[in-house]
Design a protein that fits this description.
By secondary structure, this protein is of the alpha/beta class. The chain is built from 13 helices and ten strands. A six-stranded mixed sheet has the order 2-1-5-6-10-9. The chain has a two-stranded antiparallel ribbon with strand order 3-4. It has a two-stranded parallel ribbon with strand order 7-8. About 3% of the residues have low confidence.
């Protein structure tokens, strides 16, 4: 299947303006960084649409726009506790049946669940409303801690700014790491966060001298990705015990040092596969894997394809 080029975001009455801004920013114009997506906001009936900020949006596209989209995204709205109209649910189901990718940001997952699209699948939403989603739709396996969950052609994401993570994941999955990284740089965002990373962190912004040391160690690790980088070495550079380092790392990032390094190595390998003609053995060395075989094993496990297949799908070199 070709990567999506036509994107339709469904904006219900009472739509969240933050969500509107996120999808418009990601799939709007980025010059030469990304292809010119055919992007549209659509709603139940074209015309003025109320928002959560009280400032109406004037939208010119109705539900028929969903039928022609490669990617459909349902946005969160203030009245999500009441299911959308049957016409909306039918349009979402029809888009999925016609082969579209269907995603939901935040409580937009309630619309997909009401349409029956999430039955028998895993899904996430804003952590605050995850119990409500699970209670209303016991046939859905709700994972309240995930940033996003990818179930093939159905993808759900957490609330608020996690919409950026959801959209960047879709870009990375369908158009490659180089494009996703470039769009993220354009928006001054982290290039990639794993979907299993925690939604809510007790200390999302590290404070104090210890965490300043932690930030310095993370920067050093990024610059020395070709090294083995055992946790013991990272802890030593942070002037902490291994146990203290792991605890502070988890509090600051929502993940473990091992998972963070794995994500960093795989992202680095993706971009090198896309943008260079380096042998897989050299790419493995540059991102810190002991051999091409180890890189291949990790790539197949985490990305579903071997490195050479990934390169054929996403390469940007002549």
């Amino acid at each position: 299947m070709s990567p999506f080029m036509t994107v339709a975001a469904y904006a219900p009455p009472g739509v969240g303006m933050l969500a509107v801004g996120i999808v418009t920013e990601v799939f709007g114009g980025h010059g030469d960084t990304a292809p010119g997506f055919d992007f549209a906001l659509c709603t139940d009936r074209p015309g003025p649409v109320p928002t959560d900020l009280g400032v109406p949006l004037t939208l010119t596209h109705g539900l028929d726009r969903l039928a022609s989209a490669d990617l459909v995204i349902t946005l969160p709205w203030a009245g999500f506790r009441t299911p959308p109209a049957p016409a909306v649910l039918d349009a979402l189901s029809a888009a999925y049946e016609h082969g579209a990718l269907v995603a939901a940001h935040c409580v937009g997952a309630f619309a997909l669940a009401a349409a029956g699209l999430l039955d028998g699948r895993r899904a996430t939403t804003h952590w605050r409303f995850a119990p409500l989603l699970a209670g209303r739709h016991p046939e859905v396996t709700v994972e309240p801690d995930a940033l996003y969950i990818d179930e093939g052609r159905l993808i759900t994401g957490a609330g608020a700014a996690a919409g950026f993570d959801l959209c960047l994941h879709l870009l990375r999955r369908e158009h490659g790491a180089a494009m996703a990284n470039a769009v993220a740089r354009d928006m001054v965002l982290p290039a990639h966060r794993e979907g299993g990373q925690a939604q809510y962190l007790a200390a999302p912004v590290p404070e104090g001298c210890r965490d300043e040391r932690l930030a310095e160690v993370l920067a050093w690790a990024r610059a020395n990705l070709h090294e083995p980088l055992p946790v013991e070495e990272l802890a030593r550079r942070a002037l902490m015990s291994k146990r203290s380092f792991a605890r502070r790392f988890s509090a600051a990032t929502g993940t473990t040092p091992h998972a963070w390094l794995r994500s960093l190595r795989l992202s680095g390998a993706e971009e090198l596969l896309e943008t260079t003609d380096l042998p897989v053995e050299e790419i493995a060395r540059r991102v810190g894997y002991g051999s091409a075989a180890v890189l291949r094993e990790q790539f197949v496990r985490r990305r579903g394809v071997p490195p050479r297949s990934y390169r054929r799908a996403f390469t940007t070199t002549p």
